[in-house]
Amino acid sequence: MRRKRPTSSTSNVRVECNLFAEVEALSAGADHSCENEGWSNPGIPRLYHFHESPSMRYTFAPTSTLCPIDCARTAGAETGWCFAGSRKSGFSVSCFFFSTGETVSLSSVNQSPPAQAKPHKKKSSQQLLRERYENGDPEVGLLGEHSGKKRQILARLAGVQKALDEAPNSFLVNLEKTLSLEYSTILLQEQELWALKSRVNWLLNGDRNTAFFHTSTLVRRRYNKIHQLKDLMGNWIYDFSELQSLVQRTFQCLYSTEQLCSKLHPEPFFQQAMHVSEEEANNLDSSVSDQEIKQALFSFKPFKAPGPDGLHAGWKSNLLSLPGIITLIQSVTEAIPTYFMQCMVLPAKVCNQIDRLNRNFLWGTTTERRKMHLVSWAKCCKEKSKGGLGLKSTKARNLAFLAKLNWRVLQNKDDLRARVLIAKYGLTNPSNPPIRNRVGSPNWAAVKAGTETLSHLFRDCPKSIIFWNRLQIPIEAMSVGWCKLNSDGSYLGNPGAAGSGGLIRDCHGRWIKGYSRSVGRASSVLAELWGVRDGLQLAISLNIDCLEVELDAELLIHLFFSPPSSNHVYSSIINDCRWLMTQIPRCEMHHAYREANRVADALARIGCFQSDAFVLYDYPPAQVDVLLELDVSELTVPRVVPL
DNA sequence: GCGGAAAGTGCGGTACTACC
DNA sequence: GGTAGTACCGCACTTTCCGC
Length: 643
Known about the structure:
Blueprint: E1 13-15, E2 23-25, H1 54-60, E3 67-72, E4 80-86, E5 91-98, E6 103-105, H2 125-134, H3 146-166, H4 170-198, H5 210-224, E7 229-230, E8 236-237, H6 240-254, H7 269-272, H8 278-284, H9 290-298, H10 313-319, H11 322-331, H12 338-341, H13 348-363, H14 377-380, H15 394-411, H16 416-425, H17 442-460, H18 462-470, E9 472-474, E10 483-492, E11 496-505, E12 511-522, H19 524-541, E13 546-551, H20 554-561, H21 571-582, E14 586-591, H22 598-609, E15 614-617, H23 622-633, E16 636-638
Parallel strand pairs: 10-13, 13-14
Antiparallel strand pairs: 1-2, 3-4, 4-5, 5-6, 7-8, 9-16, 10-11, 11-12, 12-15
The structure holds a DNA duplex (20 and 20 nucleotides).
């Protein structure tokens, strides 16, 4: 790369980065042009908008109003960067940086006058750019001149829309979309340009706000420009040359001295040097304490060192939204002690300190400044559906984990941990206290704490009492004159040895008749159907006019109320049951929970093991006697729900 | 100044440990 | 096994702080 020496009158090299990247070089002197710096190499003109180079944009944004523009990037040619300052309608190139490390200031570069053009009439770079752009070369980007291009796009858009009104077609529609997209891109580029120039924090003003950025830039430039200075005598200096000399004199006085004498015999070095005290010397080889590490960490300024994500701690603490703070609490301070919570009882002091950290972070309280906590921590720890924030109290989480640990020990007594604890401390079951009431290991203390939580959860808590009461299955009373048929099927394997059974009771719950049948090897559905059929036949033989049939199999209810189908594998017995129901004047069929149908279930289980095909009971058998009395005496039955 | 919440303080009780 | 010391905990009350 050739580099020309600057001459005295070469300060007006300007590159108007308008639509055609017109280069205007108005300098006199030796033969020099941008072409000589590599611009005229084949395929050179590739101009990038500055925003296509984020690294350069961020590199230069905080320190310069100049925009880096990749002016030449070709294989085998030097990569050049020019920095363009704002002009009335474009950019003004100030200097070039090349990959070879050289820097060329265009203010000091000669440009050959047109009269001294080279004899081979080589095309200038701007001519090459213009030709390639006009030929639609996508490699040729545009620099600056957003306003000119905006006007052009808007004019084209107006023309296209006018044509669409007169004669719409698909080409115009697509063209309008393309132009609209291009216009949006220009707006974005313009906004980024002025955001870059205005040096304001675009993270805080990230909206499309070109006018604001533009105004900020102009105001800042006007504010930073020095128009006048006051000299040592207090006189204001306005002239530019006088200002230059004043600044020069000031700095000369600042970094020079008129004192010519100096001390010939300075103090010995050891007297001037700083001394290390004996205590400091002893501490030099001591290990770093946790307190020192904490002090060093907490001494970081909030906006000093950004984290791995590029954001400062101060930004997070000040600008995080409430959901962000909550998420951070849940993912950090609530998650860290989870492991210890699962195997030991955290001291109340530790729990309180963790909660204090969380609520202070939530409301913004720091060591330097206390902030008001608008809502109590207890309310914050409520569920979101109940008006809380969904946060969790550390103590409550600890107890919940320990209850889980206790439950595992009780359920998996063959587990090594359970066997060790039971052998050492004599744990029998959750309702009985341990044989040896001793403190024991931390693990044992955790199990004990979990026992208390389980007892509270499943027995003592008022909410748990309500919960269990809701699970009570009421034995519904029957209307006067109605009889109830409870039928059920039982099987030993599906299919396997199956049996069915049932009973008929009057409106007071008193026993009328019962039955059980050995169905043989059958499925559970077939056993259930046999039970219903036998019950209906028994009711007809007893001349019962009002019968309520209760089954605990919802599938059978669905089969009975489905449209008749001859293709179903159980269609014959289902149709038989339907016909039997028609023989009873008033017959209804309902679903009942298994707990409310336990007497029929017991009779069906008898049917699985009996040798006779069908057994009719005038009196309740001994196996169901107790269950029958419970049904008569109690109004509710606890329901077994798998957890 | 008021209201609300956290933090601090004091007291009593309990559980555990070390020691004799 | 008894005793002293210590740590922990819960409770009640007061103080502090902050926004309005």
